[in-house]
Specification:
By secondary structure, the chain is mainly α. It folds into 2 domains: 102 residues, no CATH class; 139 residues, no CATH class. 74% of the residues lie in helices and 0% in strands.
C-alpha cells in the first residue's frame, strides 16, 4: 500500500499534488471539527488532527504557489506560513489549553519567517545547516559576523514577543509551554542580531535579553527571571568582549557578576516557592493545641 501511494505521488505533477494536499487538509479539518463537544480524549485527538490540517494546508499553498510563482519562493513561504498559522489559531482561540495547537501556530509562524539566514529574494533551497548554527557560534567567537540574519532575526523577534505576550492569557500548563517557546525564539533572535556586522547588533541583542529579564521581574515570574538572567549573562559577555577588545579582567568581571545574578535569581525562586503541605507554616505545635483546648 505504501509503495503504491509513493509511486502514485511521484507520478503526479505539482498542481495535482497541491490539490491532493488541499483535499487532505479539508478532510483533517472536518475531522477535527467533528470532535467538538465530545469526550476529553476525543477532543484532544481532534486538536492534533486540526494541527495536522494546518500543516497540510501550508504545504498545499507552498506547492501550488511555487509552481505559479517560481521566482518568489521566499514570499510564498510567508503566505503559506501565515495561512497555516491562521488556520491553527482559529481553533486555538477557542481551546486555549491545547498545547498542540499552540505549537502548530508558532511552527507555522516560523515557516512564515523563512529559513534562518535567508533574505527576501532567496529561494527555498537556500537553507543550510551553517546558516542555522552560525548565530550560536557568535556567542563564542566575537569576530564572527554576518548581515544575512537581519530579516529572519527581526521576524523571529516579533514572533517571540507575540508568543510570550500570549502566555499572559493562557492556562498555566499552556502558558508555560508558550513561555519556553517564546524565550527560545527570543534567544535565537538575539543571537541572530548579535552577529551583525555593525556593533549595534550586539547592543541590540543585549537590550532584548535585558528587556526579557525586566519583564520577568515586573510580572514576578520566576521562570522568566531565571531564563532572562542566563540570557543576559551570555549576551553581556559578548558585548563586553567586543567593546573592550577581549580584556580578560573586564570579561571575567562581567561573567562573575552574571553568575551572581543567576544565583540570586535561583535563590529568589526558591524563597517564593509555596510551602509544602505539612510544613512548618501548617503544623500546629503542642503548646498551641493546649492553648486552644483550654480556650
Amino acid at each position: 500500500m505504501a509503495g503504491f501511494l509513493s509511486s502514485t505521488w511521484a507520478a503526479l505533477d505539482e498542481p495535482a499534488k497541491a490539490l491532493l494536499l488541499l483535499a487532505l487538509s479539508g478532510a483533517l479539518t472536518a475531522a477535527g471539527a467533528m470532535s467538538e463537544g465530545r469526550r476529553d480524549p476525543v477532543v484532544r485527538l481532534g486538536h492534533l488532527v486540526w494541527a495536522a490540517g494546518s500543516v497540510t494546508l501550508a504545504a498545499a499553498i507552498t506547492m501550488a504557489a511555487t509552481h505559479v510563482f517560481p521566482d518568489h519562493a521566499r514570499l510564498v513561504l510567508a503566505v503559506a506560513g501565515l495561512s497555516g498559522a491562521a488556520h491553527a489559531g482559529l481553533r486555538w482561540r477557542r481551546h486555549a489549553d491545547a498545547w498542540s495547537l499552540l505549537i502548530a501556530t508558532v511552527g507555522m509562524g516560523l515557516v512564515a519567517a523563512g529559513p534562518p539566514g535567508t533574505a527576501l529574494a532567496d529561494g527555498l533551497g537556500s537553507l543550510r545547516l551553517a546558516d542555522v548554527v552560525r548565530p550560536l557560534g557568535g556567542l563564542l567567537d566575537p569576530t564572527l559576523s554576518s548581515n544575512r540574519h537581519l530579516l529572519t532575526g527581526s521576524a523571529h523577534l516579533l514572533l517571540a514577543i507575540a508568543t510570550i505576550a500570549a502566555a499572559r492569557w493562557l492556562p498555566t500548563r499552556t502558558a508555560t509551554t508558550a513561555k519556553v517557546l517564546g524565550t527560545g525564539l527570543l534567544w535565537y533572535a538575539a543571537a541572530e542580531l548579535n552577529v551583525l556586522d555593525i556593533e549595534v547588533g550586539a547592543v541590540a541583542a543585549l537590550l532584548i535579553v535585558l528587556a526579557h529579564l525586566a519583564h520577568g521581574l515586573i510580572t514576578d515570574d520566576t521562570l522568566m527571571v531565571v531564563m532572562g538572567t542566563l540570557a543576559s549573562l551570555l549576551a553581556g559577555v559578548r558585548v563586553v568582549t567586543s567593546l573592550f577588545s577581549g580584556e580578560v579582567v573586564v570579561t571575567f568581571t562581567v561573567l562573575g557578576a552574571g553568575i551572581g545574578m543567576l544565583a540570586w535569581a535561583w535563590r529568589a525562586a526558591q524563597s517564593r516557592a509555596p510551602a509544602r503541605p505539612g510544613g512548618p507554616s501548617e503544623v500546629t505545635t503542642t503548646d498551641d493545641a493546649i492553648g486552644n483546648t483550654a480556650t
